């Protein structure tokens, strides 16, 4: 009954004053002081506002305008915002997005890299164009076996299917060291020069990554989640070639051209992925990626592509 009176009163005032409707409104704070109550004695104003959307103003919405409490009475509450939540949201905005990986069977072994390590390598090594692409584990030593023929087949099929030769090689030694290299050129049975983006890397004990990209006398350290990148370059007379030799069953990064005394492959895997070597390489300007004489035993190997 009260709503009907409000409606008739509002309609009377509106019709009496033409386009200059008298809007009876009142706001007051409730007795508990926690919210503000607003009253409006002009339901025709609400009706006209809804009628402006003629296609949406169907019969049940007309009834809602007439009999809904919100046409006449609204309560406004002050929100109490926890400042600590705002700081957490700001931190979340600054956080780097995780790396998406293509899901595998439950029986597949775990990845050698944690997601935070993947994020660090993505930011430090991969070109910007690959940052938002999911990672696909093309080859895993523990999953696919130590057959070099099988390894070469997986790589070849990947390149043929997706037409993208960019790959990330990750090696874990029996001493727990994690090293590897990024190649943006197809590894073939004949030496083929890589481009300036190819690089080598190793994981440090403090959780950071050191990246060798071939810039003379320059190396960078990248902590997990670090957004910084190195500029790529090459030294004169050197070649960042990537070699995949099925006859000798080796895969190697750099070396062979313009090598100085004591230089060799920056990273080389051989003997069916059972053994590897690493040495100073002019192409990548790197130090040996493992401690000692540069010879290491392989625990596991993975190769990632980018979908």
Task: Set out the fold topology.
Layout: H1 2-17, E1 25-29, E2 35-40, H2 43-51, H3 59-67, E3 73-77, H4 83-94, H5 115-125, E4 135-140, H6 141-144, H7 148-162, E5 167-173, E6 178-183, E7 192-193, E8 199-203, E9 209-212, E10 220-222, E11 241-245, E12 250-253, E13 267-270, E14 275-277, E15 295-306
Antiparallel strand pairs: 1-2, 2-3, 4-15, 5-6, 5-15, 6-8, 7-11, 8-9, 9-10, 11-12, 12-13, 13-14, 14-15
Describe the protein's architecture and organization.
With 307 residues, the protein is an alpha+beta fold. Helix content is 25%, strand content 25%. The strands form 2 sheets. Strands 4, 5, 6, 7, 8, 9, 10, 11, 12, 13, 14 and 15 form a 12-stranded antiparallel sheet that branches. It has a 3-stranded antiparallel sheet with strand order 1-2-3, with no helix packed on it. A hairpin with a 4-residue loop joins strand 5 and strand 6. The radius of gyration is 33 Å and the shape is elongated.
């Amino acid at each position: 009954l009260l709503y009907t009176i409000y409606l008739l009163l509002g309609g009377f005032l509106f019709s009496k004053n033409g386009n200059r409707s008298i809007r009876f409104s009142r706001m007051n704070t409730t007795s508990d002081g926690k919210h503000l109550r607003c009253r409006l004695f002009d339901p025709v104003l609400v009706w006209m506002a809804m009628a402006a959307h003629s296609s949406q103003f169907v019969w049940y919405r007309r009834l809602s305008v007439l009999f809904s409490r919100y046409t006449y009475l609204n309560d406004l509450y002050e929100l109490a915002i926890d400042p600590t939540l705002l700081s957490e949201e700001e931190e979340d905005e600054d956080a780097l997005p995780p790396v998406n990986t293509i899901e595998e069977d439950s029986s597949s072994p775990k990845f050698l890299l944690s997601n935070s390590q993947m994020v660090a390598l993505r930011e430090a090594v991969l070109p910007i164009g690959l940052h938002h692409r999911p990672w696909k584990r093309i080859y895993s030593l523990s999953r696919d076996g130590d057959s070099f023929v099988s390894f070469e087949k997986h790589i070849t099929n990947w390149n043929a299917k997706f037409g993208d030769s960019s790959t990330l090689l990750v090696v874990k030694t029996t001493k727990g060291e994690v090293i590897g290299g990024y190649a943006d050129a197809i590894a073939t049975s004949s030496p083929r020069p890589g481009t300036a983006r190819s690089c080598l890397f190793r994981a440090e004990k403090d959780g950071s990554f050191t990246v060798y990209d071939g810039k003379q006398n320059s190396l960078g350290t990248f902590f997990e989640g670090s957004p910084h990148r190195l500029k790529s370059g090459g030294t004169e007379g050197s070649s960042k070639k990537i070699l995949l030799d099925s006859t000798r069953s080796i895969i190697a990064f750099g070396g062979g051209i313009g090598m100085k005394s004591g230089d060799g492959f920056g990273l080389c895997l051989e003997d069916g992925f059972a053994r590897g070597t690493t040495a100073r390489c002019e192409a990548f300007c790197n130090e040996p990626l493992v401690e000692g004489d540069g010879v290491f035993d392989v625990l596991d190997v993975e190769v990632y592509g980018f979908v």
